[in-house]
Amino acid sequence: MKRTFDVKFWLGIGISAFFMALLFRKINFQQLGAALLMVDYRYIALAVLFTFISYFLRAVRWRYLLISEKPIPLASLYPATIIGYMANNLLPARLGEFVRAYVLARREGLETPAVFASLVIDRLFDGFTVLLILLATLFTLRLPGNMADAETALRAGGVAMFLLYCGVLVFLYLLKRQTMRTLNLVAWLLKPFPKRVSERLIPLLGSFITGIRLSSKGGHILAILASSFFIWMFAVLPVDMTLRGFGIHLPITASMFILVLLVFAVMVPASPGFIGTYHYACFKGLSAFGIADVTSVSIALIIHGTAFFPVIIAGFYHLWSGGISLNSVRKAGEAS
Fold it and tell me: Which residues cross the membrane (predicted)?
């Protein structure tokens, strides 16, 4: 069968290659190797541990997002989470989210659309928490004078995105509580557009919102909010541990700032594993604190490596223990 040319895939490869070229264009590779050999890898081991704690907490939050559907054991949620993140590292177009939903639905006998709807809410909580981290960082961390314009732009962008997320949450609340009125309002707003847009979007919104069955119990909501906080606390700590492994002691807000840049970087289309964009964002964030180029590149490589390779190994283990083939996972993600 003739394979079609995948424009998005090769565009991602090109973007990754461009940023990797930017990253290494002035780097002395002997100095880079020496810097990597001088790392205290005890801190890197802690960084890996904290990364997996963050994934475990994601499974905990997911449990409470789905608890109205069915009380699901963490023994099912955690492997599905790890497999999903492994797929994000190996497959293009962030198919890991679909894979994660597919694996859990297959294991627990749930409907895949309902599971995927919970992951949309999961990502909304992530986005909201990251924006809070960005705002807290920009209003407490003093960046160097030569980044004053960038700081102002990030602060304005952070406030704008925060308000946008608030609007999205209000919209979803109204869509859930006043479904028909909200759908009628959307249909009215879409009148200037071709009719086929509303004909496709309105049923999609209706199907999506019926798939969301969030618990209204105070304890469950508190568990979702608390786990969101701890997920990102344990996502910040690996950055801080890596810096300490290189003998660099910056305030925790510096690690928070770098993490936010990394989150923005993975939104840029790139090759699987976010190669290039991830490294360059980390490098630029570290350079803002006066860290030498060679050291910044070394740190970027280690931070990416601790988030990339361990989860792939763990993901393959959970695929094997669950009797799932990588090929079936890939096909499910592409089909979704």
Answer: 9-29, 41-60, 124-141, 153-176, 221-239, 246-268, 297-320
